[in-house]
Amino acid sequence: MMQLPAFYLKMSRDDSWYMDRPHFHESVEFLLPVSSGDQLFVENEAYPLRPTVLFVLPDATLHKTLASKPYKRFVLHVPVQTLDFLSTSQTNLSERIHNTQYMVELGDRAEYFRDLLGQLEKRCEAHSMEFGADIEELFLLTKFLIEALSLAKPRKREPELPKHSMKSNSLQISAVLDYLQEHMTEKLTLDQIASEFYISKYHLSHCFKAATGFSVMEYLISSRILKARLLLQDGVRVQAAGEAVGFQSNEHFIRTFTSMTGISPKQYARQFSEGDRQ
């Protein structure tokens, strides 16, 4: 019988919550605030943390959370393999997730979804070996996924810029983001990037942080790691992958990749290929 990768669900509470840097997961994350927080930065957009919305973050989605006051939330991580197992030709969960907006408005159904995740959390914590307990747990997970994703709206193919975040003090941050993506493989410095837009590096840093929640360099490095993941999945050797995304030394690439993902690029590549590619 096929063994499904375990999903993870937890109710968390912090008096304040500040992520030092953006991060991403190999699994899909569902974030359901139970209380209001400050903001969730996803890719290049900022969203308010409030208890009437659900956030659906596909695997490898760069995000960062800021909360300066007590903040409670449900966090559910579901491996892509589990989603594929639960999917059918008519109901493809992974495809739906990658084609819907990050924020799902729950409205007056928010309490229902909190109760549903609360039931699922109790099931997970019980670790029951009783007959049927595992199927009931999988049923609750499937029910949550189907009902939540049924409320999600399609992602815009040509997304509009966030009304409040992508323009700061006459500097169009979207242009900076485009520049970083286009020149990612080059040896970039903050001074060099600022000079491209005829502003000081201090002004660039301030505007970029205000608009995206990330510093310029942490956004650049995170983007490089995300691209390196895809190269490693395609069988590109570790050193070649690092060089292809702009790292100047193999040691720096390995150290940064391991810090951000929790495993070395060599170990990561082995998940997709049996060959030793380092």
UniProtKB/TrEMBL annotation:
InterPro entries: Homeodomain-like_sf, HTH_AraC, HTH_AraC-typ_CS
Any one GO MF annotation of this record: DNA-binding transcription factor activity
Span of domain HTH araC/xylS-type: 174-271
Classification via SMART domains: HTH_ARAC (SM00342)
Swiss-Prot/TrEMBL keywords: DNA-binding, Transcription, Transcription regulation
One Pfam family, short name: HTH_18
Entries under PROSITE patterns matching the protein: HTH_ARAC_FAMILY_1, HTH_ARAC_FAMILY_2
Name this protein carries in UniProt: Helix-turn-helix transcriptional regulator
Organism: Oscillibacter hominis
